[in-house]
Structure formats: structure tokens, C-alpha cells
Amino acid sequence: MIFNKSSNNQQHTEYSYDSTKKGAAALVDVYGAFKNVSISFKLALFEIRDKYARSGIGPVWGLFINLFLIAGYYAVGQFIFKVENNTSYYLCHVATGIIFWQYIVSAWGESTNAISSNINLLNNQFMHKSSLLNVVFFKQSLILAYSIPLLLLCQYTLGVFHTEPTKVILLFFSIFINLGLVYCFFFPFFGIWMVLKARYNDMIYIVTVFTQLLFFITPVIWIPPSSEEIGFKLITLGNPFYHILALLRSPFMGEFAPSEVYIGIGIFILIAWLIFAMIYRWAHSQIMYWV
Amino acid sequence: MDEVPKISFKNVSIRFKNLSKKPMLMTSLLGMKNSYALASENRPAPKVINALSSINLELQGNNRLGLIGPNGAGKTTFLRSIAGVYMPTEGEIIVKGIVRSLLNMSVGLNMDLSPKENILRMTTMAGQSRKYMPEIIKEIAEFTELEQRFNSPIRGFSSGMLTRLVFGIQTALDCDLLLMDEWISTGDLRFHKRASNRLEKMVKRTPLLVLATHSEALVKEWCTRAIYLENGEIIADGSPEEVWRTYSKS
User: Where do runs of H (alpha helix) occur along B66-215?
Assistant: First the structure.
């Protein structure tokens, strides 16, 4: 028996492409990605199963990798660079930094390759290409969830749970608000890289160089001093990953992100969407010819 | 009530930029550039490839279109543009209805997942709700006769078993528009007969069929209309018999 449309409860498909309305087609693609967000979530689950197939402990590797890296970088910071700080605070700073940096780097790399690695699929059926960004976001967020015990341990070590209940509740909600803001930046920012990689294979090498460089200029393992020096302000406030890391990290350090971080991420979200809109309008109709 | 499925091409042209690479720096430096060069490589490659040129077409309701033409005529590009893969460089394409593409039978499977997980993944991508999933899985398992290995990774499957599985999944869900690049022939003799029956039933149930083929018998048996494509242009459009005659004379 072949399953018929009514029993399958499938949505009726309708699409039209007018070569004179490239912007509209790109917009429909992005809208489709948000509309079919549940499909992206389900696909992310399959991607995780695939990624950790034939692995004994599966996504728990995410936790172990972070543990090893935290131990290594903490030792480097504390014993080689002689970071003068409260040991438990510095340990939590490194732990949250490494966990979220791993999340950012993995999501960036996978988004850049999103079209190339799904080319067989895209060549055979209609799919909103930008929905691949959602798949990566969900996949990496689910893998990140395996490191929650470490993040909670940081909160416990810093005595977050012993402060007033109102603050704990507000910190809890700020995790989701901040994650939402990070998503608002990730979608267009990674989208730009995804499109450019579809055209130029060089992008993956550029991402590798950038992530290595950004690791050192973003306060992942070092604590930013309160310096008024313009050069220092530029590499912190002018670096979107400084803001992203601050947003993701602060609730787990028992702090609220400073207002300059919210202003900064707002500006970067705006810039990223503007550039993404321009690039996607230009590239959307051509991507499948390139790959 | 479902809307009538429709395909409309208004003056559609599809042009690809020829992205043939210039010799890379290292290749040139290592002197590999001309080692195996063919004489024809000295001729400049076209900068733009006209995959489809000014195509006008209206298909609505119950219609079965056969696409014929030599290799490289634009048949697959035509099918992919209906599937929503390629967008027109010029003109407008409108498609209404649930589209199912049987363009490549090796697509979509994930070798580390089990048949069951692959079914869930592929049907999820097709927008299928989970409500009827158990019935779909059961039906595909029975049809493919792979029930006993339905929970083990497909990595160890033979190519025949994989083809059976993909065929079972691709033909399990009904649609309004069926796109086929050649008639699918699959599996051993016993399975081939069952597969042909299943495909025939699916084709009969589908209101709109677009079939790219090199087989005269298939065009004449299954299609109500045919198009002869060459170099991306429609050379002839009409009844399958007339169009095949023009094609065979060319």
C-alpha cells in the first residue's frame, strides 16, 4: 500500500520563482527555515545519532573533551602564565570559556560546510537552504547540553545558588534570553560563511585561521582587565565573540552581562543581518549552480 | 479539497556560469599543468552554459509528460528546476502540489543509521508527521523484506538491499507531482517484479508525471505528451508518437 496524502497529513507545497524577484525568493527561503523549525530540530537529532554512531559513549564525548581542555588550559594559565586570581573563580572562567568556545567553533565550522555536506540531498529535492543553519544550531546546542553538569558545577562553586532566589531566577531566565540573542547573531553570521563556502572552497581555511586567532583575542582563558586603552577596547568591544562569550558565560558565573555587551551584540546582529541579506539576495538563486 | 497540481514555466532560461578552474598556483609551479593536457583543452571553454533556453510550458491536472533528448540536452536540469532545486536565470516557474523526485536512487541514506532511522530521517525531510510513522515503517519493512535487519546499521547491507530500501522509502509516500529520471529498475528478479508493480501503481495514482527517458516504449506507454529537448531548447512538443518520430529522425 502506498500512503496517500490525506493519511500522511503532508503540507501542500507551492513555490514560484521569478527571476526578477531574487530578494523575495531569498526572503521566502529564510522564512521557510523559521517556519519549518521543528523539522530542523528532528534532523539535528538524526545528525547527532550519525555523528556518534559506533561510539561507546556518544555525545558524552563533548563533556569529556571539555573536561580535558579545561584541565589543560587551567594548568597553562595558572602555572605557566601565572594568572593572579582567585583559583576557583579562574577555574570557572576557563571552564565556561572553553565549553562555550567549543560550541561556537563547532557551530561555525559545521555551518560553513552545511551546503557542501548536504549537496546530494539538495540536488534532489526542494529544501530551504537556510534551514541547514537551524539544524547546525540545534545540533550543537544539544551537544552543549551534555556539558550542563559542568556549568552547574561552576555556578555551585561560585555560590550562585546561595544568593537571593530572585537573582537565581533572573539568572536562569537570562540564560535563554542570551541564547536567543546569540541565535539572532549566529543565523546571519554563519549564513554568510555557508554561502561563501558554497562558492569558494577557501572559506574553510579562512575559518580555521580566524578561529585560532580569535581564541587568543577573545577572553576564553584570560580575564579581561578593566583597561581604558583604545587598542584593547577595540579588540574586545569590536570583537563579536567577546560579546557572545560574555552573554553565554555570565549567567553561569553568577553575573548579569554588562549593558555594553547587549548594545554591542545588538549592533553586531544588525550588521550581520544586513550583510547576510545582501549576500543571500545575490547568491540564493546561484548556490545550486556552484556546488 | 486539494488544489489542482500545476507546473508552469514562463519563458524560463537557466544558465550556469562555467566555473572550470584556472590552473592552481601549485599545479602550475609543479609543472603538472600540461603533462596530461588534451589538444581540445587549448580551445577556450564557454563562459556560460545554456542549460535551458526560453522554455514555456503549462501542465495541470492529469498529465504525463515525457522528456526525451540526447545526453546533456537539459532533461535533468528541467526536472531539477521543477523540483525546486534550480532557480531560473530568466522567467518564472510556478509549481503547485506535493513533489516527489525519483532522480537518484542512491541519495539520502545514512550508512551509520538503521533502516528504521533512515526511514524516519527521510520522511521527516519530506514533511511527514510522526503520527503515521509506525505504519509507514511496517509497510516498508514488509515490502523490502528487510524486517530482520531493520535495527542494524545499513553499512553492512549489499548494494541490492540498499537499493530496495531506498526504493521502498521513495515510493511509500503519495504525491501530486512525480519526477523521474529514467524508469527505476531495481533488485533481483523477484524483487524487480514487485518493484515494477509498486511503481506502476504509484504512477497511476499520481496526477502529474514528468519522466525523462531514452526508452520509446516507456514514453509511448506512460506519457500523454512529450517534449524533445536539445541543447536546452524545446525542439518538438506534442503527442509521444509524433515527438519520438522527430527525435529518431534527428
Answer: 75-83, 115-125, 133-144, 159-170, 189-205
Nearest CA in chain A to B128: A10
Could you tell me which chain A residue has the CA closest to the CA of B20? A290
Identify all chain B residues contacting A290, using CB atoms and an 8 Å cutoff. 19
CB contact under 8 A, B113 and A46: yes
Mean pLDDT of A187-202: 94
Q: What is the pLDDT of residues A35-91, one digit of tens each?
A: 989 989 999 999 998 888 888 898 899 899 999 999 999 998 888 888 777 788 999
pLDDT-based confidence at B20, cuts 50/70/90?
A: low
Q: Which three cell numbers stand for residue A151?
A: 556549568
On whether ipTM exceeds 0.90, the answer is no
Query: Can you give the pTM of this predicted structure?
Result: 0.88
Report the distance separating Cα A167 and Cα A163, nearest Å. Answer: 7
Q: Can you tell me which residue has the cell 521557510?
A: A32
Give the closest-approach CA distance of A278 to chain B in angstroms: 18
pLDDT of residue A77: 85
Helix (H) or strand (E) holding B221: helix B216-222
Q: Does A38 touch chain B if contact means CB atoms closer than 8 Å?
A: no
Give the pLDDT confidence of B142-193 residue by residue, as tens digits: 988 888 888 888 888 888 888 888 888 888 888 889 998 876 666 677 788 8
* Inter-chain CB pairs, A–B, below 8 Å: 147
Domain covering B6-20+47-98+212-249 in this structure, CATH number: 3.40.50.300
Alpha carbon A55 to its chain centroid, in Å, reads 24
Determine which of B20, B80, B87 to mutate to test the interface with A (most A C-beta atoms within 10 Å): B87
Q: Which residue in this structure is represented by grid cell 506507454?
A: B221
Domain with CATH 3.40.50.300 in chain B: 6-20+47-98+212-249, 105-176+184-207
Mutate to test the interface with B, among A46, A202, A284 (most CBs of B within 10 A): A46
Distance from the B246 Cα atom to the nearest Cα atom in chain A, whole angstroms: 30
Q: Which CATH class is domain B105-176+184-207?
A: alpha beta
Which of B47, B80, B93, B124 has the highest number of chain A CBs within 10 A, making it the mutation to test binding with A? Answer: B124
Residue B25, pLDDT above cutoff 70: no
